[in-house]
Amino acid sequence: MATNRKVNVDVESFVRAHDVFSLGEATAALAHPSGKDGVRNSLRYYLRLGRLKSVARGVDASIPPTAESATFQPDRYLVAAKARADAVFSYHAAFELLGAAHSDWNVNRGRASPTAMIARTWSRPETGCDSPARNPVTSPPRG
Length: 143
Hints:
By secondary structure, the protein is mainly alpha-helical. It contains six helices and three strands.
């Protein structure tokens, strides 16, 4: 005969096991005798210790022991998934989650960087203007 007893999980082990979690998930897993208020008080204690970071209303992120609590940034997709149960990832976010996103605005593959392209100048034969101070060009000359 199976019983539907909730297992009282240690708060510390719950925080370590979950990178990002909602208050509802913590309440269901911890089964505090005082209910949701008791779980909220336990989580506030870990917030004061610097082991948790509140990222949205009712959503907390656990801070790894090697990270500083002031500069720690949790995974934005985990936070979004926990903040809204009906969240849908689309466009570039979906490609990032699938590992298929390609963004090369921060990648330099031997080509001139955007700042080098802005600084590049060329002369106009018809005007004889070859001074960079008088003739700034924001793109390379076309061949």
